[in-house]
Amino acid sequence: MGxxxxxxxxxxxxxxxxxxxxxxxMVPPDRVLASLRRATRDVEVTVVEGVMGLYxxxxxxxxxxxxAAAAKLLEAPVVLVVDASKMARSAGAIAxxxxxxxxxxxxxxxxxxxxxxxxxxxxxxAAIERATGLPVFGWLPRDPRLAIPERYLGxxxxxxxxxxTDFVHSAGEIVASHLDLDRILTVARQAPPPCEAVRxxxxxxxxxxxxxxxxxxxxxxxxxxxxxxxxxxxxxxPPAPRSPSSARCxxxxxxxxxxx
Length: 260
Fold this sequence. Notes:
Blueprint: H1 7-15, H2 29-39, H3 67-74, E1 78-83, H4 90-101, E2 107-115, H5 118-132, E3 136-141, E4 150-151, E5 154-155, H6 164-178, H7 181-189, E6 217-219, H8 230-234, H9 244-249, E7 252-254
Parallel strand pairs: 1-2, 2-3, 6-7
Antiparallel strand pairs: 4-5
C-alpha cells in the first residue's frame, strides 16, 4: 500500500513476480481497482501489505489513505499482525480494540509476531481468540533469520548485493512451519475478485516533437537509481542505464533516486 519503492523489492523477490503499488490517497478508486485487476488476472491469491498501522491515514479524524480504507475498497479480508514481543494477555486487549474500532472492516484474524517461544505464542493466541472471537493463524518467533538489513533511510533494497535468496528461503520455511497457511488461503479465497465493471487505465499517447517523432526518455536503472514503480516501467522501454548512445538520442533523462 502507498508510495513505497523498497518493500516491494522484497515482495517481488518472494513472489517471483513484480509487486504493484496501490495508493488510495493519490490515485482515484477506479484506477486502483483497475490496476489491481490488471496485475492479478493470472493469480490464485493476492497478498496486500498494509501501510503503517491499520487505521493510520492522512489525518487523525478519518480513514482516508489508510490500510483500512483500502481493504474496504478492495473488499479484502484483513489479517492483522500483532507485535507480541513485550506482552502477554494484553495482546487480547489490543486485538479487541482493533476489532471494535471499525465494525465495517472485515477483520478475519490475527498473527502474533516476535513471540518468545511456543508457550508464549500459545498463550498470546488464546488471549486474542478469547477476547475477539476471531482466529489466530499462528505465531512467528524472534528468529535472527527473519531480520532484514536496515540503514538510516530504511530497509536495504534487494537490488544491492546480499544473501537475498537465503533470506527468502529461510523466511518461507519459518512461515510454513508456524502459520496455518491453509486457513489463511481459505480466508483469502472468500474475497470477491476485482470488480469487472471498473474502467481500464489508459495511458495517453505522448505528443510528437517538431520532427513528428515521439520523445525518448532515458531511464537510469542500476543499484543506485532504481526508485521506480513497476507500472511506470511497464509503460516505457528504457535503454540500458548510463549508455552513451542512449544519452545522445534521448529527449530527456530520468534519474529515479538516487539511493543514499
